[in-house]
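Thread: "does anyone have the structure for this chain?"

Original post by V.I.:
We have the sequence but no experimental structure in hand. Need at least a predicted one for the grant figures.
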Amino acid sequence: MSSAAENGDAASGKQNEEKTYKKTASSAIKGAIQLGIGYTVGNLTSKPDRDVLMQDFYVVESVFLPSEGSNLTPAHHYPDFRFKTYAPLAFRYFRELFGIKPDDYLYSICSEPLIELSNPGASGSLFFVTSDDEFIIKTVQHKEAEFLQKLLPGYYMNLNQNPRTLLPKFYGLYCMQSGGINIRIVVMNNVLPRSMRMHFTYDLKGSTYKRRASRKEREKSNPTFKDLDFLQDMHEGLYFDTETYNALMKTLQRDCRVLESFKIMDYSLLLGIHILDHSLKEKEEENPQNVPDAKRSGMQKVLYSTAMESIQGPGKPGDGIITENPDTMGGIPAKSHKGEKLLLFMGIIDILQSYRLMKKLEHSWKALVYDGDTVSVHRPSFYADRFLKFMNSRVFKKIQALKASPSKKRCNSIAALKATSQEIVSSISQEWKGEKRDLLTEGQSFSSLDEEDTSSDPDIVISTKELMKCACCCLWLDGCSLWHCGSCDFLFLSTSAPALSLPHCWSS
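Reply from O.Q.:
Generated one for you, tokens below.
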């Protein structure tokens, strides 16, 4: 996995057991990372800014850091090691594109000890998170590092065209060499902030074959569940307003097509769910680990680092499912099928798995034993389509507006007509009252009106009996069949001619 899937479950309960990776203690790896990145980023500031060239993606810079120190490097208490930096100018461009200044990058990684996280995946990689919660540092295999380096030109082009993406944000690729062992690391964005508690965390692939969290994983304080767990826990899915849903699905579709073009498969959507209703009850019991770092607010805001910014861009909030809680940490507002208000944090992870020969053989073998369409390993085009279908039909759903009943529609239409035509009605009613007074004072023969043929022009004929029965003003607005009763001020619609319809106060 390429993010803090455990949301800050920093190897609790094993404080005295230091992890090792390739026979190297994790403390030595953390120290080498901070020393190496501190040197290479500081050295990079002396190089002038310029456009990224194709050859910049294949440059590898190396520096030796002996424990006793040198003219260029400080002394340290770790074994001697060599630190390699891949494509330094290209990654400097990526950091600038994401709004990360060199000083902030150095401060986040080198000022405080890195926090080690446990790993629920099968890769055996080590995960570290910076103390300000900004960056994830992950150890990767040689093939993954090699694939990322080959991916950089296409990654560069995609970011320039589509900066709104849920794909991982890569900030650096490095290698520590010590005692004949190579340890490659990649620095990425942190998808799940530790300062916001994740009540549920899921790793979703759109696959159902053995996609359930293990018993060991479930025993953790913050387990990472899988597809079958999600279908069981959130069987109705997660609901968004129309604008947010469309933005999310558009981003996922674009990202999947990019991954398909790079022949990448076996990636996941890391999804963290924060339930706002639960968080209100838990505020009194918050532990210091869940309190946001005070240093974070003083640092520069990393552009496109949050889920909401990744799908809609900065400064464009959601439609308003959640309005009363401004401190959302960039989460995407949603609702559960129970009506609970949620904040979602998500990102596509594990994109460094290409459909190579071993993956093809793995899929072929599993397809013979199980249903080939349900296993996670599959050709990139099928994997992308299945992934999108699962997200669109089972995970994310759009809130449907309730259809109004016919009676409500009629009431609404009448109210709308009254609001838009009130001014016209009031002005014409005064004119009609004047004409009616003229009719009565001039002594016109009402019997002659009764004797006229009503079938010739029914829209302009009103009987004498009706005029004398009520002294109110009844109007016939040509073209919209609108009646207004001046006595009771009732506005209503009629499909009949005026002589054939009774105003409101007459019928009562």
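V.I.: this helps a lot. Residues 406-441 form the longest helix (36 residues).
O.Q.: and The two ends are 74 Å apart (CA to CA).
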